[in-house]
Amino acid sequence: MQTIDLIILSYAKTPALRAVTEYCVSSALASEPAAKIRFNILVIESQKDAAAYQGEGVTTLFPQEPFGYHAYMNIGLRQTSTPFVCLCNNDLYFHPGWASAMLDAFAAQPQLQSASPLCSKHHPKVSIHQNSGLHFGYGVRREVAGWCLFFRREMLKITGPLDENLKFWFADNDYAKTLEKHQIPHALVTDAVVDHLESETLSTLNPIRQRLMTKRAKFYFDKKWNGLRGLTYARKLAQFYVKLGLFAIKTALTKQP
After folding, report:
1. pLDDT at 216
2. Distance CA 42, CA 154 (A)
3. Please, which pLDDT band fits residue 248 given cuts at 50, 70 and 90?
């Protein structure tokens, strides 16, 4: 029997968002026969007063540290230990047999270190279809489906922990660039299917916070990977905060009766 660690980040601040995470967990548990594959599911929950999630092998952790996508995933990585680990958004549906297909791909390709399953909702839109083999590469939202990253834990000896300067956006871009930098083989496994329900938690954030999360991350990403120099980075960041302030004022004025 193979054991796989699933690390799922959740923010169950409403009953609807709680239901999204519960659906994710239950679909994972039902996706494989327990006698064949055991899942150790660690839900890292940002809503501190939420109830623990239920199910065989399910653990809930409530970190005291401020939220950061990579920071929380690193907490999960430190709390788990199996040879294969999967980093997951909470807005996923795991199709039956997905994990078996992932393990089969790793067994067939010993050089493979990292992989993502196909999303039947997203990937056909970018001309990648189910049961079309392994697609090697580092394309974000193509080969690298950042909502579900499955890899050999030993890979972290090469890459190190996830970059905690990235709080949410551009986390998948950074993962892809890191793999490419170290020439670590990654593939989309098209006979393993995990559907992404697309940013259910993010859609509840106000526009100002969404802008803050996206733009600040882009500036840092460009500084790290595209040679954006320190002074240019600082100037762009300052300009962004000015624009964000003006946007906040405009938004507040339009809401006045």
Report:
1. 77
2. 19
3. very low
Render pLDDT for 195-220 as a digit per residue (tens, 0 to 9): 998 754 444 445 545 555 567 788 88
Residue 183 CA to residue 170 CA, distance in Å, equals: 20
Give the chain's length.
Answer: 257
Q: Are 98 and 117 in contact (CB under 8 A)?
A: yes
CA distance 52 to 221: 34
State how far the Cα of 42 lies from the Cα of 76, in Å rounded to an integer.
Answer: 7
List for the chain the helix, strand, coil content (%; round to 5).
Answer: 40, 25, 35
- Sign of torsion, CA 235 237 238 239? positive
DSSP H or E segment with residue 98: helix 98-108
Are 101 and 199 a contacting pair, CB within 8 Å?
no
